[in-house]
Design goal:
alpha+beta, 2 domains, GMP Synthetase, Chain A, domain 3
């Protein structure tokens, strides 16, 4: 089975748990790093999540995972906040972030650069459009984007 399928199964299992706690699932990823597989659940709620939220979801979800046993490989399960500089992957992430400052990293340079910053103006299935500091709108192919993150200003 593919990583995407494991992510889908995990999200379907964890969503009722998080919803009962007033928490939403931001993202789920199943990745291999080195020799280990990780199942990561990113959770969020208005005002942000804390360690107690992560622990409560982790405990309840761990029980559900043990019952369902959908992943045959050994893996490490983690529950955490998506963080301030959260990655925008899904349409729901982009929708919530319209008007926010973002950093876009591309697989290949466009206009001489692989990194572009601006205010997220719009998106669709094919493109993401930002407005740069000088007021110029720039659109990028979603297929060419390595990552889009909320910009953190310190």
């Amino acid at each position: 089975m593919s990583a995407k399928k494991y992510e889908e199964i995990a999200e379907n299992l964890v969503t009722p748990i998080t919803e009962s706690m007033g928490i939403s699932v931001y993202d789920v990823e199943y990745v291999k790093e080195g020799s280990d597989h990780y199942l990561r659940i990113y959770i969020d709620k208005p005002g942000g999540v804390n360690i107690n939220d992560c622990e409560a979801v982790s405990r309840a979800f761990s029980e559900k995972l043990d019952e369902a046993d959908p992943i045959p490989d050994a893996y490490i399960m983690e529950v955490s906040s998506p963080g301030l500089g959260r990655t925008l992957k899904k349409d729901r992430h982009f929708e919530k972030s319209i008007g926010e400052d973002v950093d876009i990293k591309l697989f290949e340079a466009v206009e001489g650069a692989k990194e572009h910053s601006g205010v997220l103006k719009s998106f669709d299935k094919e493109t993401v459009t930002i407005t740069t500091e000088d007021g110029t709108d720039k659109s990028f192919s979603r297929k060419g984007i390595a990552s889009t993150r909320l910009k953190i200003d310190f």
